[in-house]
Request: fold
Amino acid sequence: MSNRCDTPDIQAFRHHMPLQMRFNDIDMLGHLNNSIYLTFMDLAKTRYFQAVLGGRLDWHKIGVVIVNINCNFCAPTFFDEDIEVETAVIAIGEKSLTLEQRIYNPSNRQVKCQCRTIMSGFDMQTHTSAAITPEWIEALEAYEGRNLRKEKNI
Reply:
């Protein structure tokens, strides 16, 4: 059985974001607290969508919500380490998209945490699931430089 931390699903991530740890992000063992990884990933998701949509992210019509997150914690992160998060959409379905994110040390590329997030299209008026809009699909595919519509199981 392969370890997802050793075998990334996609070749390259276009979006990278340096992270800054704070003293209170560290747990009793001197490691980055597990809950902080998700906070960092949330921040990177926002920056990713801003980059994809060219800064046209309307917080009143966000269009997607998180419905599932799976994380693999691969190696401890210590306070004095430089870390970054990389983000990519790897698939788009009719009403969902799948994000892959990794927090890693940029000097040695050691993966610290890998996360797969499924986001559902969301209608802010009715508070129900909705199709991923053509605008989002076009912008995501243009940013990633490839067809993202689900053609295989992930």
Summary: The chain has a mean pLDDT of 88.
